[in-house]
């Protein structure tokens, strides 16, 4: 059965990328599009798939380079762990990029989620996490200032707010998260060194203490090719029992 043109393009691109060693610069878009017999727009759309998988990397003004098979961080979502903990378990070299710590005030929505008053002081911690030589996640945590003071993170901060709170002894017990696929906005794309509109995994979460206090509201953006999340679910039989009587 013949492939559709776009599928054939992806097959040809996959073969080309697989045949080249990591660090190889691909031909320019006009040359590659001509070689493959497609428009530049179609080529660019197909290449986004391979960039999302971490197999190639586009550098503004420098071209597109083969990355090779990226490291994959795999984890279940039933247990909350920091990205650093997941990486250590799988033997991957992951660390934080530059960290931005700023004082802000709660807007209406953030105040509602953190159960504080509008205008209350908050602390926002933003940073990328890097695997090998590139950013693969962009993490933003927002906490009430009475939970975390900015000066606390001057030392001993490894990039994980969760790890810091646990090491401090905070009684954290549960987290509620929403998982969505989004197109990268301009600011997120800049932090992750990808193209605006590229597909990302986004986790939006609230972190609770044993008393039910919300201590952290977070947004986490992940480059899909570097992460594999799974969920183990229990099967519940909702069918009514059938009783067979005998006379």
Descriptive account of the structure:
This protein is an alpha+beta fold and 247 residues long. It has two domains: 5-66, Arc Repressor Mutant, subunit A (Orthogonal Bundle), CATH 1.10.10.10; 73-230, Chorismate lyase-like (Chorismate lyase). 26% of the residues lie in helices and 33% in strands. It contains seven helices and ten strands. The protein has helices at 5-19, 29-36, 40-52, 83-89, 108-114, 161-168, 186-192; strands at residues 56-59, 63-66, 73-76, 94-105, 121-131, 134-144, 172-183, 199-209, 214-222, 227-230. The strands form three sheets. Strands 4-5-6-9-8-7 form a six-stranded antiparallel β-sheet. It is elongated and about 60 Å long.
Task: Put the structure in a nutshell.
Helix content is 26%, strand content 33%. The chain has 247 residues and is α+β, with helices and mostly antiparallel strands.
Layout of SSEs?
Elements: H1 5-19, H2 29-36, H3 40-52, E1 56-59, E2 63-66, E3 73-76, H4 83-89, E4 94-105, H5 108-114, E5 121-131, E6 134-144, H6 161-168, E7 172-183, H7 186-192, E8 199-209, E9 214-222, E10 227-230
Parallel strand pairs: 3-10
Antiparallel strand pairs: 1-2, 4-5, 5-6, 6-9, 7-8, 8-9
Helix pairs in contact: 1-3, 2-3
